[in-house]
Specification:
The complex is a heterodimer. By secondary structure, chain A is an all-alpha fold. Chain A has 14 helices and no strands. In chain B, the strands form two sheets. Chain B has a six-stranded mixed beta sheet, sandwiched between helices. A four-stranded antiparallel beta sheet of chain B has the order 2-1-4-5, covered by helices on one side. Chain B is built from ten helices and ten strands. In chain B, α3 packs parallel to α5. Chain B has a single domain, classed as P-loop containing nucleotide triphosphate hydrolases (Rossmann fold, 3-Layer(aba) Sandwich), CATH 3.40.50.300. The radius of gyration of chain B is 19 Å and the shape is globular. The chains are: A mainly alpha, B alpha/beta.
Chain lengths: ~325, ~250
């Protein structure tokens, strides 16, 4: 037994993916290098915020140390390449991702002892712990991480091809599409709906036979995995990583992207990332010193006029349009 | 052999003794009602049985298993299910998903993560049966918030039924329902096969006397009387608790 949907309705469901997909694929043919580079960054942060949305929007876990997991992967991959000369992408990238997953496994055990606001505080503290570890310039660790200055010189991935800004954009786009759809499938699966059930009513879920702790733990690890992928992509893209990208401020920025895009909407994460990074880029061109002001105004505007985030309003508009379109036939 | 056997259960909140030496057992297929005035400890007893609150002392056996220290979710997989006095549903998910979540709670499909939840046809068929039981299949795409209180109440109960429990605990199943809705509910519980043992607490005496094979009376944490509905109706101590005037009128 299945639930049938009309052909027209299906068309309306898939049309946005096709249009946006075509736009993303053809973009480098008519946009400048600076814009392609900006878009690469948007996709990487979009992926990172989507992983955060899995926790915040879908599972109801207010994780505030997400940038730390991203940072663990970025630092691991960067250090392996720059200091240990392990340049093969097939070694350095999985190592970075595995370190992020490992960090998530450890952090999850500690943070999931608490819930709601206490969970947030513990993840914030764990994030700051990672920040302090990479921020110290003492000893061997300081040599590797470069302390508060961070370190640079991470090249594009070594895969037997010579990357340019455009080809690296396609490389990131491929990862983004695969990871994005993986997340999309996970969220629509029995497992993903179980996470949403936990967000809605954890007590009831336990009464229905779910080991809710295990579900939350798995969700935390999955989020760590995708944050790790984003971290690896970012360190190759940026060539440089510093504690600033790991700490409290960075995690806050991810939350801002999520709130602006709309939590619990998955693709909204990308919209939030595009709005924030786009505004940051263009305000950087005109009035770099006013960026925090613009960011604040942006936050206030969304909370006052677009509560629930941009994506929610876009989806509602689209639903109206598609029901009008289906009714016309 | 008993479905549930409770021995010398104790529970207190601070200095307040909420359950005092509670012992009883349920035979397979029985419909047992638990009554008692407000604050008697009815919901506490259910919470201890479901594993939300650890018992201070005593033992609980479900079928062959000692579940005294078992976490709630494991008790469910052994065949225990409950509904709540206040509706505790998943308000932002639609009705079908609510029911599917309840069905997959005791199945390994709950860990699957690739195919959409609505493509598991076995579960979907079960969801259809459950929703048709309460006449809500047509409403399957509505969010829970869009349903009336009475409908939500029915969903509350089918969620508990979804795991095909051996022992079903219902906490005030008719709370807030109209008399018509209550009689539908009574029909629904009556239609359950005798594979399911039902233990429910209620204030609504119509519900109690039309459903229960046996009634237990809980008063300040103690079971003070149990027997058939007729016996309980005639029990003088119960009449005293519920009406409070019996003794005076005898004295007078």
């Amino acid at each position: 037994m299945t639930i049938h949907r009309g052909k027209k309705e299906r068309l309306f469901r898939f049309a946005p993916y096709v249009i946006i997909g075509l736009f993303l694929v053809t973009l480098p043919t008519y946009a400048g290098v600076a814009f392609v580079s900006l878009l690469t960054k948007i996709l990487i942060f979009g992926l990172l915020v989507m992983a955060l949305d899995l926790l915040v929007g879908y599972t109801g876990l207010w994780a505030f140390g997400h940038a730390a997991l991203f940072g663990v992967a970025a630092y691991t991959t960067g250090i392996l390449i720059v200091h240990y000369d392990i340049t093969s992408f097939w070694l350095s990238a999985p190592a970075g991702i595995l370190m992020a997953v490992f960090a998530a496994c450890v952090f999850g055990v500690i943070a999931l002892r608490a819930s709601a606001i206490y969970f947030l505080l513990i993840t914030l503290a764990l994030g700051q712990l990672v920040f302090e570890i990479v921020n110290t310039s003492l000893g061997r660790l300081g040599e590797l991480t470069g302390g508060s200055d961070g370190f640079g010189g991470v090249p594009y991935p070594e895969l037997g091809l010579s990357f340019s800004t455009t080809s690296y954009y396609y490389f990131v786009l491929a990862f983004f599409i695969v990871c994005g759809f993986l997340l999309f499938f996970i969220l629509n699966s029995p497992f993903g709906h179980s996470l949403q059930g936990i967000r809605e009513n954890e007590t009831r879920m336990r009464c229905l036979g779910y080991n809710t702790w295990l579900f939350k733990y798995i969700a935390f690890i999955i989020a760590g995995l995708f944050a790790g992928v984003a971290g690896v992509l970012y360190v190759h893209f940026n060539g440089f990583i510093s504690p600033e990208g790991v700490g409290f401020g960075a995690s806050g920025l991810l939350w801002l992207m999520l709130i602006i895009g709309g939590r619990g909407t998955l693709w909204g994460a990308v919209i939030g990332s595009a709005v924030i990074l786009g505004l940051q880029y263009y305000s950087g061109v005109f009035t770099p010193e006013r960026w925090p002001l613009i960011m604040g105004a942006c936050m206030v505007a969304v909370i006052m006029f677009y509560r629930g985030g941009i994506m929610l309003h876009v989806t509602n508009l689209w639903k109206k349009a598609s029901s009008y379109g289906s009714a016309k036939s | 052999m008993e479905v549930l056997k409770v021995e010398n259960l104790m529970q207190s909140y601070g200095g307040l003794q909420v359950l005092f030496d509670v012992s009883f057992s349920l035979e397979p297929g029985e419909r047992v009602a638990l009554i008692g005035p407000n604050g008697a400890g009815k919901t506490t007893l259910l919470n201890v049985l479901t594993g939300f609150i650890p018992s201070a002392a005593g033992r609980i056996h479900l079928l062959d298993y000692d579940i005294t220290k078992m976490p709630s979710h494991k008790r469910v997989s052994l065949g225990l299910a409950r509904s709540f006095q206040l509706n505790t549903l998943f308000p932002h998910l639609n009705l079908l998903i609510n029911v599917l979540l309840a069905i997959q709670g005791v199945q390994t499909t709950r860990y699957r993560w690739i195919r959409p939840i609505t493509t598991y046809s076995g579960n979907l068929t079960m969801a259809k049966e459950l929703l048709e039981l309460v006449g809500l299949w047509e409403e399957r795409d509505s969010p829970i918030n869009a349903l009336s209180y009475g409908q939500q109440r029915q969903v509350e109960i089918i969620l508990a039924l979804a795991s095909k429990p051996r022992l079903l605990l219902l906490d005030e199943p008719s709370a807030g329902l109209t008399s018509g809705e209550t009689s539908n509910l009574i029909d629904m519980i009556r239609s359950l096969t005798r594979d399911t043992t039902v233990f429910f607490c209620a204030h609504d005496l119509d519900l109690v006397f039309s459903l229960a094979d046996r009634v237990m009376v809980l008063y300040y944490g103690k079971i003070i009387a149990q027997g058939t509905p007729e016996e309980i109706q005639d029990d003088s101590s119960v009449r005293e608790i519920y009406l409070g005037i019996e003794k005076e009128s005898i004295d007078a």
